[in-house]
Design a protein that fits this description.
By secondary structure, this protein is mostly helical. The protein is built from eight helices and four strands; from the N terminus they run αβαβααβααβαα. It has one domain: Rossmann fold, CATH 3.40.50.620.
């Protein structure tokens, strides 16, 4: 289970646990500006009683190329039309490919048949590695790249329980599954004490989701 500590990954993890899977959670400290999400992931993993939670350190700041891993301003106060217009500077090059590759390696060791990622192709920031065709392509690659795939045993599947859900539907599903969203953090540019900025794309999508779901947003926003 790829677990970032945000709304989507926490919901995907809760739905997966509800369906009877044991959770082996994987979080990355990759040099992200919003490193406070790592502690949020730890809190979510504990709340969901994950069988194991690993936090791996990799340094994507060495490459940069994103507002999350370089000294580039995080966009603020953008309209939904602007967010849908192009791939934003908060996109981290090849991030999901890197994360899924690590997850694939661990899945082989665990002899796990399923990797779960909380991507959505509906209310999202336009990242290319959140699309269904990308997930299908990675799954095909995994069948070629792993011992289980080559030997004809049970191949690794990529499970995307949220991919066709709006943010409001995700929040509703999470509430039904018992997610404590006060533990989560979505903000791309939180303050040092972990308060969300309330103005970045991630905050805007989160606030929209809670409002449309009719659920109070427990996020602590910067005043």
């Amino acid at each position: 289970m790829l677990l970032s500590g945000g709304v989507d990954s926490a919901t995907a993890a809760a739905l997966t646990a509800r369906d009877g899977f044991a959770l082996y959670a994987l979080t990355f400290a990759y040099g992200q500006r919003h490193a406070a999400e790592i502690e949020a992931a730890r809190c979510v993993a504990r709340a969901l009683r994950a069988a194991r939670h690993e936090v791996l350190t990799i340094d994507l700041r060495a490459f940069g190329g994103s507002a999350l891993t370089a000294d580039i301003d995080v966009p603020k106060d953008r309209t939904p039309e602007a967010m849908a217009g192009h791939i934003p500077v908060t996109y981290v090059p090849a991030r999901n490919t890197i994360f899924l590759s690590f997850a694939l390696g661990w899945a082989e060791v665990l002899e796990a048949s399923t990797i779960v990622i909380g991507v959505t192709a509906v209310d999202y920031s336009g990242y290319p590695d959140c699309r269904p065709e990308y997930i299908a392509a990675f799954e095909r690659m995994a069948a070629l790249a792993t011992r289980a795939g080559v030997e004809g045993r049970q191949p690794v599947r990529i499970r995307t329980p949220l991919i066709q859900m709006t943010k409001a539907e995700i929040v509703g599903a999470g509430i039904a599954a018992g997610v404590d969203y006060a533990l989560t953090l979505s903000c791309y540019d939180p303050s040092p004490d972990g308060a969300a900025c309330g103005r970045c794309d991630a905050c805007a999508l989160r606030r929209k989701g809670f409002a449309e779901a009719g659920v109070p947003d427990p996020t602590r926003y910067r005043r």
